[in-house]
Amino acid sequence: MSSEPTSPTKTDLKIQDVITLTARLAQLLAEEVDLLGEMKVAKIEALQQEKLFLVNALEAQRKLVDRHPGLVETIPSQDRKDLQEVVEVFNNILQENHRKLLQAKEVNHKIVQAITDVVKQSTRSKVYGGNGTTAQAPYETLSVTLNKTI
Fold this sequence. Notes:
The longest helix is centred in the middle third of the chain and has 46 residues. The protein is built from 3 helices and no strands.
């Protein structure tokens, strides 16, 4: 029995699987873009498990190529072309996804800021200021203090 490691063959790099995984990940990102556009952020969580699975599967294939760079040369030209097309679509969707995430983050920040402002406004002290006004009565009023001793 030989203890030499076997060299990878063309079948070790399952390029059709890589194409399918990349296409499905692009599809999930497109769904996420739609949900972000509709501000249905809570529904995005349902997509995370599958996205994580796809990313891990693609990462495993990338590591295989990193360990055996010659495998790339064994990819048939049609598969290479198909992969390039899928990656281009994926990258376009990824950019749109990133843009929508930034928009959702900005909208969320504005909502939080508006709520914070309302809370601050409603919890302000109703004490008279130095000019005899309060936040509730923005016009000048007469401040009266009664000093009663029993």
